[in-house]
């Protein structure tokens, strides 16, 4: 009981510090007039139903018209949001849970389950606001703190932009969809330090990392004013100037190569290096306890990932079909690349390898899925599957780090490859879409070299910022509660040592 009270006290202390820092972030945001900032959130209903300045007083006083939403888009985005939830619970929990030893499967499941819930609440309190409202190029403001302002004066739901002019979804729905991304990403990190980190330390780290790593990267990559702001060149320039820093650069990330996978992968690498190797690593068997769990988890991740990628299209339109088939083909190609590569190198293809290959392909296609054609997606899948396989089988052994469930080797390496290859296969000459000019109404492409360089800069910014935040956060957590369990508790297993229960009873 005393231990619980002490940990609770420290968690509240950290939460208070985070709250003060979040409040300070708004002070340092770029000049954003309070009267107009709320109107710049995603794509507000206020812009959709704006009254001309010359309107008669009676007209100006009239209640704003309710924005019109497409029922098919709403149905698809509700489904996509649930699919992303399904990816994590139970998908990721089974995928990771099968790879750890039986004495740690519940502790890992608990870390994923509680982290997802914790970040979901923080997202509603301040996360959505800091990620998706105007502020500076690096972080948003507090206009949507506690999800306020999502109903207009008449009680209508405010609107969030899609990628088509004049097409909207309810902002509540957009916030819910993005919440699943925000809650999923920290859950990926736990695989890097599985079987040895304190539960209390995991939770405190996740609060810090989510606030200071995930939210700034999400804002820099994905925040913009929406397509309706792009009417003339001058208006387009002004709209882009108010977008996130990496968006302003012209980096392409359809569904989270930088925001989710590179971001989490680097945090995982820093964590496993600072916490150290598992007891017995390299000297005794630390084999997965249930590979069928891992295979089932990978299959559930594949299904859920259609919500992740295709849902990022934000509309149930014809273009969603291209994102769908790209996600399908890249994953299949990566499974084959990993399995046949492992067969050639180790003499036998494994189910664990094939399941890991599926995830590697999904990671690699994530930033590219809306920007490339089907043949490009296959190439990205093959490269992603094979290179991630080499990172897991060879690079980890050469460098000697204990990334328990290969978060860095699959998510970071796969995310980097996907981000860079997006710049290659976005070329219309290679079957890609190019980039749409909302002012001219045409598709264009700046050139492979130019776009790859932009993609590389986005990758480097993400690696640097996430790595720095992760380093500081781990060190703070180590001071507050300590990062690692004792050798005795690690030997016993975290299921009983941390949670007082077992997954299996003989």
From TrEMBL:
Its main location: membrane. Pfam families: Ammonium_transp (PF00909). It is found in: Cell membrane; Membrane. It comes from the Bacteria. Residues 75-504 form the Ammonium transporter AmtB-like domain. It is a multi-pass membrane protein. PROSITE patterns: AMMONIUM_TRANSP. Belongs to the ammonia transporter channel (TC 1.A.11.2) family. This is Ammonium transporter. The lineage of its organism: Bacteria, Pseudomonadati, Pseudomonadota, Gammaproteobacteria, Cellvibrionales.
């Amino acid at each position: 009981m005393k231990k619980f009270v002490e940990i609770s006290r420290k968690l509240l202390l950290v939460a208070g510090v985070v709250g003060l820092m979040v409040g300070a972030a708004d002070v340092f945001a770029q000049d954003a007039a309070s009267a107009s900032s709320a109107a710049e959130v995603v794509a507000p209903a206020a812009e959709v139903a704006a009254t001309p300045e010359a309107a008669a007083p009676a007209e100006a006083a009239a209640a704003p018209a309710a924005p019109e939403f497409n029922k098919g888009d709403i149905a698809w985005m509700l489904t996509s949001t649930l699919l992303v939830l399904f990816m994590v619970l139970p998908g990721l929990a089974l995928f990771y849970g099968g790879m750890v030893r039986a004495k740690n499967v519940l502790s890992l499941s608990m870390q994923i389950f509680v982290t997802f819930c914790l970040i979901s609440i923080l997202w509603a309190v301040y996360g959505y606001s800091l990620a998706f409202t105007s502020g500076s190029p690096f972080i948003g403001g507090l206009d949507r703190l506690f999800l306020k302002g999502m109903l207009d004066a008449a009680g209508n739901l405010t609107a969030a932009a899609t990628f088509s002019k004049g097409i909207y979804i309810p902002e509540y729905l957009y916030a819910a969809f993005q919440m699943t991304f925000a809650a999923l990403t920290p859950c990926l990190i736990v695989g890097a330090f599985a079987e040895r980190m304190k539960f209390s330390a995991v939770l405190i780290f996740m609060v810090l990392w989510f606030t200071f790593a995930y939210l700034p990267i999400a804002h820099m990559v994905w925040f913009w004013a929406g397509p309706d702001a792009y009417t003339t060149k001058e208006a387009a320039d002004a709209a882009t100037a108010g977008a996130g820093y990496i968006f302003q650069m012209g980096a392409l990330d359809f569904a989270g190569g930088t925001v989710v996978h590179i971001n989490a992968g680097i945090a995982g690498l820093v964590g496993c290096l600072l916490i150290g190797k598992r007891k017995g690593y390299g000297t005794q068997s630390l084999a997965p306890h249930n590979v069928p769990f891992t295979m089932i988890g990978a299959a559930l991740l594949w299904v859920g990932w259609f919500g992740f990628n295709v849902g990022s299209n934000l509309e149930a339109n014809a273009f969603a079909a291209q994102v769908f088939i790209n996600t399908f083909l890249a994953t299949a190609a990566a499974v084959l690349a990993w399995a046949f590569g492992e067969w050639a190198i180790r003499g036998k293809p494994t189910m664990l390898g094939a399941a890991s290959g599926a995830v590697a392909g999904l990671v690699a296609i994530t930033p590219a899925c809306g920007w490339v054609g089907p043949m490009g997606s296959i190439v990205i899948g093959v490269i992603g599957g094979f290179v991630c396989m080499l990172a897991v089988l060879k690079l980890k052994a050469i460098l000697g780090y204990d990334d328990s469930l290969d978060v860095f080797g699959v998510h970071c390496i796969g995310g980097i490859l996907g981000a860079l290859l997006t710049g290659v296969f976005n070329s219309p000459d290679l079957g890609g879409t190019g980039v749409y000019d909302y002012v001219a109404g045409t598709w264009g492409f700046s050139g492979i070299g130019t776009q790859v360089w932009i993609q590389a800069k986005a990758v480097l910014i993400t690696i640097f910022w996430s790595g720095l935040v992760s380093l500081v956060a781990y060190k703070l957590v180590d001071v507050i509660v300590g990062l690692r369990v004792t050798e005795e508790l690690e030997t016993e297993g975290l299921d009983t040592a941390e949670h007082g229960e077992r997954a299996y009873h003989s």
